[in-house]
Each structure stands twice: as C-alpha cells, then as structure tokens.
Write a structure and sequence with these properties.
By secondary structure, this protein is an alpha+beta fold. It has eight helices and twelve strands.
Length: 285
C-alpha cells in the first residue's frame, strides 16, 4: 500500500509511475518487498528493482536478518522506521538517511502499529520528486476509497506527523553486506526459446505463440510502431518478444502479428536506435 500510494502521488505530480509487490514464503511474518518506479518518461521495464535510488525499511529488525542494503546506490538515500539517530544506523553503505519512529506515530494516529502511511511522510522529506501534499492527496484518495473519509484524514495526519519528526543525516557503511548471487540477463542472455515457433503435440501447442486460439492483441493499450528506415536489423526485438509475435521478413526486417501482440513494450525497450515507438491505442500498421 505504501508503494502504491507513493506511485499515485507521483502521478498526481504529472510523472509516470508503477508499483508492485514481491512475495516470498507465504507465512505470517515473512519479509515482503514492494517496488516503485518513477520517471518523467514512459516506463517500459517490468522487472523488480536491483539498484534502488531509495531504500525504505518499515521494520528495523530486517537489518539483522536480510542484506537490505545490497544494491543501494552510493548517491541514494534510505528511510528507516527506528528510534535511532541516522548516524547510529549501519546499512553497509553510507548514504543520506532519514529515521523516524513511524510505529509510535501510527499508534498515536491510527491506533495500530501499521506504518504504511506514516513512513510516507518521511519519504517526502528525503526526495524532491514527490511532495508531501501529493502524498497526502494520494493517501486520502487510496485509503478514503477503501476505508472512508475519517480513515483517510487520520492516515494523512500520520504522514504529516512523520514528516515533522523525521531526522535526516548520514548512516554508517561499516557492516559487510552479504551479496546475493543473481542472474541479471541482458538481451543477449535471454533463452533462445522465445525466438522459436510453437510445437504441436496432438491438440496441445507448447512454446511462444502457443495460445494461437486466443487473440490476445485486444489486451493491449499501446501498440509498437516500427520505423523501418531507422532499423539496423540487429534483431533484438525479434529475439526478446515473449509472445513470439514478431516475425523476420526475408530481408531481415520485422513485422508484428498484432492479433497476439499485448503491447508490453519490451521490443521498444531493447531497441538500440529507437526504431520502435509505443503509441497509445490498439492500432495495426
């Protein structure tokens, strides 16, 4: 909810935004992550965030059990729910740090230790892309719709209180971070299966484009516009299309089967010369 409200506040500011959660083990008390991207340009990438500009920690006990500082940019910032001063926090990377006792703020205003909205006030204090007023407006809209006007006002007040109580400084970077091993592919590393056609086994088709009976092209809200004169025939789009709906012509130029293109924008994302532009609407070229 905090990530979604922050993204909505960015939209109020006229920016592009996306937010989504990531769940690991489905058990009570398991650590949960959420991601938010904000930009002044259209956001095409869909993956989780590995190199964040801001890290927000709602439970400081995670500092002892999870390498939460892994990947945080040295020029980034951190917001932590803790009673400690910023200089007493060790993230393993020394960055601009804001600390606030968001739990106490939540108990005062919401009467429950739910810190989603109170932590948003602290986030407003350490970045200048999204203002506190927009954050409070997003809280009012999102929580008001679900819980009513009074709940919206209480949650917005919690954000304001956290903003007022937030202490900003620099955290320590002394602790050693246990780096996770992960595979972060670029376009060359994508499994070749996406460039192959589907195979049929009786009445069952397997592989990209196997859902040929489902015209999924009607799902899209944006359509790739291919500008042939810019194309350098690198084939990155063809190689990267998850649905296998890009086909190579005899001269190595491309064409799209718009019956199945969902408008995900991956082809535009990987094109090195901007020969593919995502255009709003369901179109065919």
């Amino acid at each position: 909810m905090a990530a979604q409200a922050f993204a909505e506040a960015a939209v109020i500011e006229g920016l592009e935004a996306q937010a989504f959660p990531f769940f690991g083990a489905e058990r009570r008390g398991a650590p949960v992550r959420a991601f938010a991207r904000i930009d002044d340009k259209k956001i095409r990438i869909k993956s989780q965030i590995y190199r964040p500009d801001m890290l927000v920690i709602l439970d400081e006990s995670l500092l002892d059990i999870d390498p939460v500082g892994d990947g945080l940019k040295s020029e980034g910032s951190a917001v932590i729910n803790t009673r400690k001063e910023p200089s007493a926090v060790d993230l393993g990377v020394s960055v601009r740090c804001a600390t606030v006792d968001a739990t106490s703020v939540a108990l005062e205003h919401i009467k429950a230790p739910i810190v989603n909205t109170s932590i948003l006030g602290s986030m407003a204090k350490v970045q200048d892309m999204v203002s506190l007023d927009s954050i409070k407006a997003a809280i009012t809209d999102r929580f008001g719709e679900r819980l009513g006007k009074q709940a919206a006002e209480i949650n917005a007040a919690a954000a304001q209180a956290s903003f007022d109580r937030t202490k900003v400084g620099t955290c320590l970077g002394d602790r050693e971070i246990a780096h996770r091993e992960m595979w972060l592919p670029n376009w060359q590393d994508i499994p070749i299966g996406v460039t192959l056609s589907s195979e049929s086994y009786g009445k069952v088709s397997v592989g990209p484009g196997s859902s040929w009976q489902n015209m999924t092209g009607t799902w899209r809200t944006n359509t790739p516009h291919y500008q042939k004169e810019k194309c350098i025939r690198c084939l990155r789009c063809w190689f990267s299309c998850p649905e296998g709906c890009i086909h190579r012509l005899e001269d190595d130029y491309e064409r799209w089967d718009f019956r199945y293109c969902k408008g995900c924008g991956i082809c535009a994302q990987v094109c090195p010369v901007n020969a593919i532009e995502m255009v709003k609407g369901v179109k065919e070229w």
